[in-house]
UniProtKB/TrEMBL annotation:
Cell compartments where the protein resides: Cytoplasm
Catalytic activity: dCMP + ATP = dCDP + ADP; CMP + ATP = CDP + ADP
Family indicated by similarity: Belongs to the cytidylate kinase family. Type 1 subfamily.
All copies of domain Cytidylate kinase, residue ranges: 5-40, 63-189
Protein name per the record: Cytidylate kinase
GO MF assignments: kinase activity
Main localisation: cytoplasm
Source organism phylogeny: Bacteria, Pseudomonadati, Pseudomonadota, Alphaproteobacteria, Rhodobacterales
Gene3D superfamilies: P-loop containing nucleotide triphosphate hydrolases (3.40.50.300)
Organism: Paracoccus spongiarum
InterPro entries to which the protein is assigned, alphabetical: Cytidylate_kin, Cytidylate_kinase_dom, P-loop_NTPase
Pfam (any one): Cytidylate_kin
E.C. numbers: 2.7.4.25
Record flagged with keyword ATP-binding: yes
UniProtKB keywords: ATP-binding, Cytoplasm, Kinase, Nucleotide-binding, Transferase
Gene encoding the protein: cmk
């Protein structure tokens, strides 16, 4: 059985950085599931058709990282049929040997509820806005408004809302450097293996 690490949390919490580092450390495959929703939103047109027709080329678009693509993703991600169209791909990805790390909003709760390791990565709103603003060269105050707007939509939607699984381990990266956050995550996985 392949080993699955499920990582969820709000935008810019550090979950992507932790996911990439865990995949490298353990030699696992990594899927940033947010890309699936960003690429679906960026295709335009009917989002359900876009999700069903998603191809590797869509996931390679360089414009997917923008704040606008994040907002568009969060809007189409509330549509149950869009989410349903993306499940099979995520399950196939998670079934790869020797293991996989998936990060997103509903990995521990919906996509991989049986994952032996579930992490829920958080950070204060201000820290997350400052990080994302630095990454994108944007204004931190405007970023704070955008992130809160997106988190609210992701948490309040009926379909697979953002929330920790009951058995998720919480990692708060507000006062942690990158290396410290990665070490904390590796320690959780080591305990479960
Ligand atoms: O993680 P990222 O910021 O790239 O995700 C973009 C948007 O995609 C999120 O705000 C959320 O609405 C949606 N998403 C989701 N479920 C996931 C991953 C992302 O609904 N597993």
């Amino acid at each position: 059985m392949p080993f699955v690490i499920a990582i969820d949390g709000p935008a810019a919490s550090g979950k992507g950085t932790i996911a990439r580092a865990l995949a490298r450390h353990f030699g696992f495959h990594h899927l940033d599931t947010g890309l699936l929703y960003r690429a679906t939103g960026a295709r335009g047109g009917d989002p359900v058709c876009a999700a069903r027709a998603l191809s590797p080329a869509d996931l390679a678009r360089p414009d997917l990282r923008s704040a606008e693509a994040g907002q568009a993703a969060s809007r189409i991600a509330a549509i149950p049929e869009v989410r349903a169209a993306l499940v099979a791909f995520q399950h196939r990805f998670a079934a790869q040997e020797p293991g996989a790390v998936l990060d997103g909003r509903d990995i521990g709760t919906v996509i991989c509820p049986d994952a032996p390791v579930k992490l829920y990565v958080v950070a204060s709103d201000e820290v997350r806005a400052a990080r994302r603003a630095a990454e994108l060269g944007a204004d931190p105050a405007a970023m704070l408004v955008q992130l809160r707007d997106r988190d609210r939509r992701d948490s309040e939607r009926a379909a697979a809302p953002l929330r920790p699984a009951d058995d998720a381990v919480l990692i708060d990266t507000s006062d942690m450097g990158i290396d410290e956050a990665i070490a904390a995550a590796i320690a959780v996985v080591d305990r479960a293996r």
